[in-house]
């Protein structure tokens, strides 16, 4: 699955994040992040709420712009691309949103067909065929296609979101908290679907999550981000970068606390306004 | 996204009168800067909408629902309010005109006020209230629930997909709504004057024909184009830049209406003055009612 570079034998990363900082007004969320994501890799970005995981994910696809630094995708800086070129690159990505972000005004079939109608010249019958195949892949019955998103359960909506993200057979799939808000069984169904997607479509996956079960089950590599205001001076915002096995062995208390879900002194810190 | 509220101000009280004045100037400067940034941001939004409008064909499937929502569904309410405004004008003006014995000239006053001012402003206000705030709420909800981000992530430009059809709908259909408001107002005013105020039908009609020129109707419809454009751009802008949560969506909807209404009246002043100059250039004797 992972193809080495012909000349050097080393693999060129598909996504390279260089000294990335993102600010909203005077509020800095990400500071000097360096990260390289290899083709075919499944990377989980973990960290507590508000540490900038989703911002990082949205910056990768160009929905948010870096204040400093750059995101290079396949050798190109997305922030410097024109509208047309950006569109061409964006359809190489599939994005699964936290709350699925299905279009309320459209039926399920229209939602899944949306990227196909936008970017392909396929006729209605061909589009319908792909839509049905994608819905079947995520285990949804044919009957849902005429329903509106509001009529489906949270788990079904997430699966439709995944089907829509896969409609154009992307090279990279970005998942924003894919299992948040789901019951344990549905969470695992989504995990299995992510694994299956990776197997079937050979995609590179970047997953933002705080569900450790999913991270450990799915990821080849895990990166932990830490909220900027609580870092020591000069410390990198990436607290941990390694395999799931390394994560279990980590000696950083902040990492082990997160992995095992222990509050420790957090409540006291929060009460003291940190 | 992150705005400094007054709670986060780090000014310490009791810095003396000089400090107080300096703070006041700084606050005022902040408000002016925010206002200018907002204005620039709306202008940029409008520019991007024009750019998409001229560079790519609008999709039929986005245009038709938008036209239906903006035009067809607004027609009954515009017609109804237009009729009432015509009647109200007759009721209010009758007393004064009756004292002067000039009731038959009511037709001129009612119809001229309607086609030049009340018809276009009324149609625009109804559009801002019915469609503008709904657009802001709908787009705001789409922003909050990440549907706009989803659209962009799938390589569809949200301005082209969501704003251009709404802009075209408002721009192209507001003239029809204005003509409807004018027409129903004229009919309402005439029926009330003739049947309930017992004004002579012939004279009412004659005075209306004598004083209302084609230019007056044109001026009203022409103004409405600007109103329609402003309503759609302001409402879509507020939807696109909606704050998170239900409160943000609510605020986007009300702000869209308030700013649209202010824009309608401001544009009306400018256009009324401009069109009056045009009128006087063509007909230097000017309009005379008596």
Secondary-structure topology with pairs:
The complex is a heterodimer of chains A (274) and B (290).
Chain A: E1 15-24, E2 27-37, E3 42-46, H1 53-60, E4 68-73, E5 76-77, H2 83-90, E6 93-96, H3 108-119, H4 124-137, H5 154-166, E7 172-176, H6 184-201, E8 204-208, H7 212-218, E9 221-225, E10 238-242, H8 244-249, H9 253-259, H10 266-271
Parallel strand pairs in A: 3-8, 3-9, 6-7, 7-8
Antiparallel strand pairs in A: 1-2, 1-4, 4-5, 9-10
Helix pairs in contact in A: 3-4, 3-5, 4-5, 5-6
Chain B: H1 16-55, H2 60-72, H3 75-100, H4 106-144, H5 147-153, H6 158-196, H7 201-211, H8 214-240, H9 245-282
Helix pairs in contact in B: 1-6, 2-6, 3-4, 3-6, 4-6, 4-7, 4-8, 4-9, 6-8, 8-9
Overall geometry of chain A comes to globular
Shape of chain B: globular
Number-wise, the strands of chain A total 10
Order of helices and strands of chain B: HHHHHHHHH
CA(first)-CA(last) distance of chain B:
58 Å
Roughly how much helix do the residues of chain A carry, as a percent range? 25-40%
| Major sheet size, sense and barrel closure of chain A | 6 strands, mixed
Estimate the strand proportion of chain A.
15-25%
C-alpha termini separation of chain A: 44 Å
Average pLDDT level of chain B: 89
